[in-house]
Amino acid sequence: MAPMANFHTKSKGRVGMSTRKTWAAAIAGALLLAGCAGGAPQQGANAGGEVQINIMGATMRLESMVTGWETMIAEFETANPGVKVNLDLQGEWDEIPQRLSQARMSNKSVDLIRTTGGIIRSTLAPAGAVVDLTDAVKPIEDRFVTGTLDNYRIGDHLWGLPYGETTTSAVFYNKTMFDDLGLKAPSTFDELVAASNTIKEKKGIKNPWIHQGSLVGYWPMWFQETYSQTTKHQQVERVEGWLSGKQSFVTPESVDALGLVHKFFEAGVLTRDSLDT
Is it the case that residue 77 has pLDDT exceeding 90? Predict the structure, then answer.
């Protein structure tokens, strides 16, 4: 099985031309990569001998994203007669390992996985559930922007590929409300606490800051931010140390990072309800 990974947040719902080309190439490459894994693309009994490529992924949030994928797949199938691409989108990101395990137990072929770098590094690669792409990607590695492959590496081995544009997380605030309360966008923790207290007092809002907490896969983002600070931006190397078993997670830097996350709750900036949205 050949893993493909996307960056967590996509700023656009549609699948653009460059993304379609990237995935079309990936789908074509699935034939070779499945061979590397010791398997082969499935030929359905009722498909007249056509080659079937199965893609597993989580449910897409926007209908336009699904439409984009369906369009890309249709174009690929037209350009490659005799190939059928099956897109299976269900559940959340963190359910991918369990779904993949169930597919293997039922002898169902999965050729490409649309998942996250975190799931690849923490679960799929250590469990041997995906193919090592190091040698396959080496001839084209210079096509990727420096650093974009790092999220899919453990040590010297590459377990996934990014597609689409690199994006980042952001905090949105209600500027109209801030102006009405005479507040400015906070740039320090103390300013954040003061703004939160003012919003709670003047507007009666219990949760001044909310987060997509219903998506459990986003919870580690808080720790990742604070751990970057406590390790002086050595968080990637440290995480690789945990995953390889070369060092313990329990270190002063980890404890301090968790303590910094706790400060948001202790100061009332975040509550349990803040993360249940």
Answer: yes
